[in-house]
Structure formats: structure tokens, C-alpha cells
Amino acid sequence: MHLDFLQSHAWQVSLGRFVVLLAVSLAVGWWFGAPLYAALIALSGYSVWSLVSLYQMQSWLRSRQRRPPPEDRGVWSDISAHMYTKLHAERSRKRRLVNLLRAFREGAAALPDGVVVLTRGRSVVWFNEAAARLLGLAAPRDRGAHIDGFLPLPVRSWLTEDPAQEPLREVASNLDEAIRLSFRLIPYSRDHLLLVVRDVTPLARLEQVRRDFVANVSHELRTPLTVLHGYLEMLEPEVMPQLAPVLADLRGQSRRMTQIVEDLLTLSRLEAQQQINDAERVSIRALLSTLRREAEGLSQGRHRVDIVQSCDSDLRGSTDYLHSAFSNLVSNAVRYTAEGGRIELSWQATANGGARFAVADTGYGIPAEHLPRITERFYRVSTSRSRESGGTGLGLSIVKHVLQLHQARLEIQSEVGVGSTFSCVFARERLLAPEVLMDETHAH
Ligand code: ADP
Questions:
Q1: Do the strands 314-316 and 431-432 form a parallel or antiparallel pair, or are they unpaired?
Q2: 3-state DSSP call for residue 162?
Q3: How far is the CA of 396 from the centre of ligand 1 (A)?
Q4: What is the rounded CA–CA span in Å between residue 70 and residue 367?
Q5: Is the distance from the beta carbon of residue 386 to the nearest atom of ligand 1 less than 6 Å?
């Protein structure tokens, strides 16, 4: 509700005083025969008093309003009182906010994970104790410093990419090789980023124990299996015809076990490897024709195999590993496609300057709910179909690891009853311009 200012007590007091002063001065002046002079003197006095009140209010405001405002019950003091209550409320709100902020900061400081607040330009705004310990930051020296100097090399290049990217796992710390850190970047406001650093050394150690265990078991199984396999191969079914089906089954199973052990050993080797020899040129043309031959060998004429190559670039990486990954995809396509189906191997450029190797089939397809887990070890959509076709359930894990070593990714599109496409997408940095052959140059 809007109140007329005359209804306000302060205005009534101030105006009342003014009117009474004017009336009294006029009456007194009239008595002495000079009412106007008297009124003039009274008005001057009133102005001086107003100025004094203004001065008092100003000095009260300047005194940071710790004491209550000057009190004369008029409009001036009403204004001051108004400001006083407003400022008081503001001050307690501020105090509450500061307390809240302090609680948050103390909480963040006590977190076991390192937290660094960065500007978009990657300079350090704030960090907690764990971040100081894990990255070697020191307060207040490093506030405002560029974060790059405190990060292991792989993290620097990772940081310059898309901020909403995947976390970076198990990077050796700058300060101590034995410490493994994982990094995560969270953009949380328009100009700030949160870098979360976690010490994953115990986890990495456990993971190493698991890897060693699998590698050792596989290794230990290899010799007895070879012996068993050797004896089984030596037994002639003709000698004991009644045992011929059993013998065939035994041979099949021992072959399968050997394959599983070999695949597990390959996986262990891949996992243990942090990097691959980058210098090698992988000739895609040669690889494609080898793969085609393999596909045709596996298919035994039951499928049509085509090659589509629209990109001339070669790859930089490990020929052996890439061959093993691609041939796993090809073998899957043959094994999971019914007779009469078509398999297409392609090598094509991608929109952002990279290239993709794809194996497309017109096979059984994979139901969508299985896709997220399909690259896990021993994960199969249909165990019986995988076993029948001689699968170990490790093929796609091997593919994933090989691609990781080449900083490439696996994309899977599949529709049940229509077919599947497995694509390996390589970045531009992995490509090599086609080699100019000597005899070709001579020919021109
Ligand atoms: P496996 O040795 O069993 O083939 P993989 O790791 O190679 O193991 O594949 C995992 C599972 O993914 C397979 O068991 C199969 O169910 C499914 N799969 C892989 N490739 C294809 C494909 N081209 N078409 C249909 N299903 C596939």
C-alpha cells in the first residue's frame, strides 16, 4: 500500500516544526513591525540547522554506520534509520554468506582429492591441500600461475582438448614416478573450470596384481596345454573307432583352450604396454588384401567379401597389433553372418581429417542393450553361438586395447537381423601420406 508522505510521522514532525517556526517568527516580527525580516532570519536559521543535520548524517554514514544514526525524529533521522536497518540486514546477510563460503572452502580443503579452480585461460585461482601435495603447488606463490607447469606431459595435451572429455587415468606424477594420478576436468561456470586430481596408486597396484595374475596363469597353462594338444593330435581315431567322436571333441576343446590362453596372453601384453612404436608405416592396401584373404579363407565361399578404399593415407602404428585387431573384426563378421551374407571392409576419410577402418556385415546383429558391454572380456551376446563358431569372448577386448594404444576409438552400429558395422576411427595425427613408389615416379 502506498502511503501519502504527509501520513508519515517524520514528515509531520518536520513540517510541523517548519510551520510553527514560520508562524512564531512572523508573529514576533509583526510585534516588532518587521515580519519579513523575522521570517528571513528564521528561514536562514532553519537552513543552517538543515545543513548541520545533513553534515551529521554524512559523518554517520562515513563512520561505517557502527553506531546508531543521529536522532531528531524528523525526516533526516527517518532516512538514516531506514538506511541503518537496511545496512544491518545487508551486513548479517553478508556474514552468513561469508560463513557459508568459509564452510565450503574448508570442506573443499579437507577433501582427500586434489581440487584446483582454474580460469578458462588455465591459470590457478584456488587449490586445496591435496592438490598442493599431489601437484607440488604452493600457496600463495602459485595463485595466478599457469597450471601447465605443474602437470605431467600427457595431462597438458589432454587439457587443451574438449573440456567435457573423459577423465584421464593413471598418469605417473611429476613429483614421483611411483605415484599414479587420475585427472578429471569439470567446467562449472562460464569462466571457471574445476580440475580434480585423485591419487589412484593403490588402485593401480591392485590392477597390476590382477594383470600379473592373469598373465601368470595363462603362461603356466600354456605348456601343459601344448603337451595335451600334442598327445591328442598323435592319437589316431582309426585305432579306436568307438572313441572317434570323443577324440574329435577333445581336440576341439583343447584347441579352444589354447586359443583362450593365447588371447589372454595377447591381452596381458597389450595392457602392459603404455606406448607402441610409432615409427612404423602400416600399409593399408596390403593389410586390406591380407584381411580379405583371411575372410575368404574363414568363409569358405559362404559370403561375399568386398573392399572399398577411398582414402590413400597409411597409418602410423604397429602392423602386428592392427592386423590382429582388424582380423578379429573380420573373423567376427564371418562368424556372425549367415551363409549368403555380404561383408565389406572399408578404409575411408572422416570429416575431420582422420580415417576409419570399418567392417560391415549383413549378419545377425546385436541387440542395443548389449552394445555398451560388448567389449568386456568374455562378454557374449549368445554364448552358444560364440562357442560354436570358435569364439573366445576376448576378440573385442583385444580390438579395444589395440585401438587405445593408437589413440583410436571403436564405434559399433548394429541392428538385429540387418547387420553390424564395427568402425575403428583414427585421428589425423595417426595418418601418413601415401608413399610415392620409385618405379611409379620413373614411369611418369
Ligand atoms: P567372440 O570370441 O565370442 O566372438 P568377441 O569379443 O569377438 O568374442 O565378441 C563379443 C560378442 O559380440 C560375440 O560373442 C558376439 O555375440 C558379438 N559380436 C561381435 N561381432 C559381431 C558381429 N559382427 N555381428 C554380431 N555379433 C557380434
A1: antiparallel
A2: coil
A3: 7
A4: 80
A5: yes
